[in-house]
Amino acid sequence: MSLSNYELYLQRSSLALPMAIAFLIFGLIGAPITLMLLRSTLKLFKKPTGPHMTICLGILIFDFTTACIFIVMGLSYIIDGEALPLSKWYCNFNDLIYVGGTFLSIWYVGLMSFERGLQIIHGISLSKKVWIIVMLAELLFFLVINIICFAYDNVRLVHLGIYCMAAPEKTFGKVILYSYFILSCASVLVTIYSYIGIAIMLRKRALDLYYSLNIDRETALKRANRTIIKVLVLLLSYLVLNGLETINVVIEIITELNRSPLSDFISNCLLNLNPIFNSILLIQLHDSVKASLVETYPLLSKISYVTEFTERNTA
Q: Which residue spans adopt a coiled-coil conformation according to this UniProt entry (predicted)?
């Protein structure tokens, strides 16, 4: 494996160094943000919390871990680019933590969207135990298939030359790619359904308030539309950040070949924004997360005040 990986390293793309620098930058930005949010969110668990907060915590743990790995990957390549291709365990570890953490975060965001959709759209609330079981099942499934992949030596350096991933031409590598594809597509579809459904419900509730409480129609709809636009922008951002990776996986499954370095570079840059985007997502969709963040870091309350003041005066 080391020789094969080293040959791939010698033939690596010229985009490898820019990718390493991008990893370092995204990590240095994402790690502090996710750590701050993780620290403030943990305070909410001093009291009983709903299942959505448990899923949020899972997302933050994976995002913080992944952001830290960004820093390690960037520095590792800049200091000694040969360390990854010459070390089998490091290659496997890189695949497990970087690729695994990225996809688990995407799946958990889909799970959070599904939980919110059931609650807001259909009024269905499942117990926290159910969601924890689903989260653990996804994690266990991921660990099992990857450990098998490691055992059969089905992980290799990608053509970009800076990280390792399951080889699409190998048996268990293909199983992993199919698994990633199915779960990622399910997450995307669930997220689209949930966010659009939530937007429709917000519009409906605004009209209900207008008819039942005689609230000014324009005011009610303007407030609802502002929230709806925010929800749809978050949805569009989620699709943009994760869409290219799904396309790349489909191409790898069909062709059984690694993606092109350019496509991989663009996809990774988009995926590496996920820890930052997910933090914004959690703050925007969960008032308790936002309140705890401001309480933990009072300086942020001034920024929050300016934002809310601007929104009120532009409404």
A: none
d(CA 157, CA 189): 30
Q: How far is CA 12 from CA 134, 139, 149, 161, 194, in A?
A: 39, 32, 23, 5, 41
Q: Which residues lie across from 155 on neighbouring strands? A: 166
Residues facing 156 on adjacent strands: 165
Q: For residues 120 and 201, is the Cβ–Cβ distance under 8 A?
A: yes
Distances (CA, A) of 202 to 119, 160, 196, 226, 310: 13, 44, 10, 10, 22
Q: DSSP letters along 132-167, please?
A: HHHHHHHHHHHHHHHHHHHHTT-EEE-TTSS-EEE-
For residues 73-105, b (16+ Cβ closer than 10 Å) or e, as one string?
bbebbeeebeebbebeeebbbbbbbbbbbbbbb
Alpha-carbon distances of 106 from 89, 103, 272, rounded to whole Å: 25, 5, 12
81-114 pLDDT, tens digit per residue, is 899 999 889 999 999 999 888 889 999 999 999 9
3-state secondary structure of 216: coil
Question: 85 near 2, Cβ under 8 Å?
Answer: yes
Classify residue 16 by its DSSP letter.
H
Interval 12-50: pLDDT, tens: 889 999 999 999 999 999 999 999 999 999 999 988 888
Q: Is the dihedral of CA 201, 57, 235, 139 positive or negative?
A: negative
Overall fold of domain 2-294:
Rhopdopsin 7-helix transmembrane proteins (1.20.1070)
Instruction: Indicate the domain borders of the chain.
Output: 2-294
